[in-house]
Specification:
505 residues, 43% strand, six-stranded antiparallel beta sheet, alpha+beta, 21 strands, 29% helix
């Protein structure tokens, strides 16, 4: 479930949220051994998401709080000229283009070219004599600017979580032109303020814009981490996605390593023998998630303890199972079990008696479990009658796919061994035809029905986390011995970025 929680929000958001550096965190000598989840994002993702960077940068400019600027300068004949710029705000902001580069073993470099912005405010000025200072005139001003912005995003780790540092920020001014409103202002005044205000103004703009970008980067990261933490939580079941190792930044991909420990109430699983190696993942797709057998097996165990592995069938669903074939044996079994009662007045309950054992192999996910089946006949005004109870050991090989925004679980090989069999109409168990029919029915229709129901339940859970809002392209779920790989391409989830900007700014 956790794998889709990482596809989010734009160059700054994805790059900062997915990769979690460990400059301030300590890991053991063999960190891969405790890695349960790995995320790899290749360069095409950064190039795709870079298109959305403009919205983030625009938010940083518009949200920056520019302080009032004051100063004075000595002028021949005039004495000291004092000035103040107040109410500075940004209008008409546009960005020509942006570029992103992954600097190997270093940082994420973002280059924003030709940011044009119009700053507006009020200029107050006057002349200072020896004994007094008198500011006697105010005039609205506009400042046309053309700026290049260079960002080097360094990633640090604090408390096993990402802490981005975007303080390595540079603004290059190609244009900074002051326009004073009104026709009565002499030309020398405009030239005067353009000359000695521009330097101060550049310093203020750089400080406030870079500070706001750093704030936006941290806010984005916290937003993503909250999304991810919510995505891998269902009630009392959660997955610890804190860092297990230092991330890796290569020229063609970014890779992060996470613990993937399942937390259930006051207990948690432990992983010390992970089989992960970077060579297990390629670079042909945009996004990769490597999931350990231990992590998913622990999720299944937690779901069992939470009582979630229960399925009830009645009415049409029950009829479909028991009437999958029309034969004398089938009719006899239905008569003996249901005793002429309508399917609508009967209910079948299927539940797991033991924690499912899950293992990954090239042919699929192998699930082993002891399962109970109980059929009750609902009698008006009376206690329900247990018409059938059985326990069986089931082994099923399941292949998973994701298509049309649905998780599909398809059994490809199954076996059933009945351990306990009790039928009210055949208490001695002398009629083997009923057991034979039930065993065939379970293999042909029962197991597919259960896996389909689990797939539907997981789809509903994933969609409740808003996975269905993502444009996931050609996803592949590949099982190997001891792990599973999910690899996919995707379209940018603009809704998440817009949601973030609306909530934060």
């Amino acid at each position: 479930m956790c794998w889709a929680g990482r596809m989010v929000l734009g160059t700054l958001s994805i790059l900062l949220g997915l990769v979690q550096a460990a400059a301030a965190c300590e890991f053991g000598p063999f960190p891969y051994r405790s890695t349960g989840i790995v995320c790899r994002m290749t360069k095409p993702v950064a190039l795709l998401l870079n298109r959305e960077t403009a919205q983030v940068i625009q938010a940083a400019f518009r949200n920056a709080q520019f302080p009032n600027i004051t100063g004075e300068r000595s002028m021949r004949l005039l004495g000291r000229v004092a000035y103040g710029l107040s109410g500075i705000q940004v209008n008409d902001l546009s960005i020509e283009r942006s570029e992103v580069e992954l600097k190997e073993d270093n940082a994420i470099h973002i280059s924003i070219r030709n940011v044009t912005a119009l700053f507006k405010g009020t200029l107050t000025y006057g002349y200072a004599g020896a004994w007094f200072l008198q500011l006697f005139h105010s005039v609205d001003f506009e400042i046309e600017s053309s700026i290049d912005l260079q960002l080097n995003i360094n990633l640090m780790c604090q408390k096993d979580q990402v802490a981005p540092d975007a303080s390595d920020c540079y603004l290059t001014f190609h244009k900074l032109t002051l326009h004073l409103q009104g026709d009565k202002q002499p030309g020398w005044l405009k030239q005067l303020f353009t000359d000695f205000i521009s330097f101060t103004l550049k310093l203020v703009l750089k400080r406030e814009v870079c500070k706001e970008i750093n704030t936006v980067a941290q806010t984005l990261t916290n937003y993503i981490l909250d999304l991810a933490a919510n995505f891998v939580r269902d009630g009392d079941i959660a997955v610890d996605i804190s860092l297990a190792s230092d991330p890796v930044i290569k020229a063609t991909y970014i890779e992060s390593y996470h613990k993937g420990i399942v937390l259930y109430r006051n207990s948690s699983s432990r992983l010390s023998d992970s089989v992960f190696s970077p060579s297990l993942l390629t670079e042909s797709r945009m996004l990769y998630f490597w999931l350990s057998e231990h992590s998913l097996s622990s999720l299944a165990a937690a779901a069992f303890l939470e009582g979630q592995l229960v399925l009830s069938l009645r009415g049409e669903k029950l009829q479909e199972l028991f009437e999958m074939e029309d034969s004398e044996v089938q009719r006899k079994a239905v008569q003996m079990i249901f005793q002429g009662t309508s399917y609508n007045d009967s209910v079948a309950k299927v539940w797991s008696l033991s924690q499912p054992q899950i293992s990954f192999q090239p042919e699929g996910t192998i699930v082993r479990s002891l399962v109970a089946v109980e059929i009750r006949i609902l009698l008006a005004g009376e206690e329900p009658l247990v018409a059938l109870y059985m326990e069986k050991e089931i082994t099923a090989t399941i292949q998973a796919t994701y298509a049309d925004k649905k998780l599909i679980l398809q059994p490809v090989d199954s076996s059933v061994v009945i351990k306990v069999f009790k039928c009210t109409a055949d208490p001695s168990g002398e009629d083997p035809s009923i057991q034979s029919f039930l065993q065939n029915m379970i293999l042909a229709a029962g197991i597919p029905e259960v896996t389909s129901s689990i797939g539907s339940a997981l789809t509903s859970l994933l969609n409740s986390k808003r996975l269905d809002l993502f444009d996931i392209i050609n996803p592949e779920i590949i099982t190997r011995e001891g792990y599973v790989i999910v690899q996919l391409d995707f379209g940018f989830p603009s809704h998440l970025l817009l949601n973030f900007l609306e909530k934060s700014f």
